[in-house]
Amino acid sequence: MSLRELLTVFPPDRLDVPVTAKKVDFVRDENALPTHQHAVGQLLLTLRGSAACRVFGDLWLVPPQCAVWVPPHTPHCNRITARSSVCLLLIRQERIQLPSTCCTLSITPLVRELVQRVAAFAPEAAPTDHSERLIQVLLTELSHMPVTGLRLPVSSDARLQSIAENIIDAPAERKDLSGWAGHIGMSRRSLARLVVRETGLSFGRWRQQLLLVMAIQKLSDGASVQQTAWDLGYESVTAFITMFKKALGTSPARYVRKDAAEQRPGAT
């Protein structure tokens, strides 16, 4: 199914129930929809593969077992990688117990199963006592999910968005500031000033933050530390581990073990 087909069979603003969900499998990369918004809140949960959501000047990356929350009336556009499986949870304003701003959430196995249970209900079906109880448990659990930092400031500037998308598509291509400046037809100094003005970060810090978010995404999807380092263009695994530890205070291997432990049923 494509994103356009999804909006046809699952129109967010024309559903008659306060909370509903749909599970969707994507065969190809999907980023066909322009920026749009809904009167309902949207939670995009990644079951397999990865997704990204652009909201205003920020890019939110969504690895497996995470979700991005987009409040009602928030302009956004989604990007889903090939062979991904996601769940879309739609929540009307009166039932929302989540933040009023966009954020990513770390999702427990219980919440993941509850979302899929809701997705098994027919979207047009009237709520029953059973479905209403299940939905209430889901909404309560969601309100306690920890917020994660999988956000990259990219601004609304089309030139920075183009650079970010190119890095995401080919992270191992190590263009420096001069190379990217030439790519978008700017001088090196002008691009450096643009990045600081739009994101508050130097170009090097901004690019490193994007690679860090992508690293978390790949590691959460099961890639080894060595493979992740190669995929992101690091000359050595040691250089990648050093960057990761400086940014997050722990090694990639420890981060993955901690994340896996928190995802196990019964983990606290």
Automatic annotation (TrEMBL):
Domain of life where this protein originates: Bacteria
InterPro entries: Homeodomain-like_sf (IPR009057), HTH_AraC (IPR018060), RmlC-like_jellyroll (IPR014710), RmlC_Cupin_sf (IPR011051)
Pfam families registered for this protein in UniProt: HTH_18
SUPFAM superfamilies listed in its UniProt record: Homeodomain-like, RmlC-like cupins
Molecular function via GO: DNA-binding transcription factor activity; sequence-specific DNA binding
Keyword hit for Cell inner membrane: no
Domain HTH araC/xylS-type: 161-258
Descriptive protein name: AraC family transcriptional regulator
Source species of the chain: Desulfovibrio porci
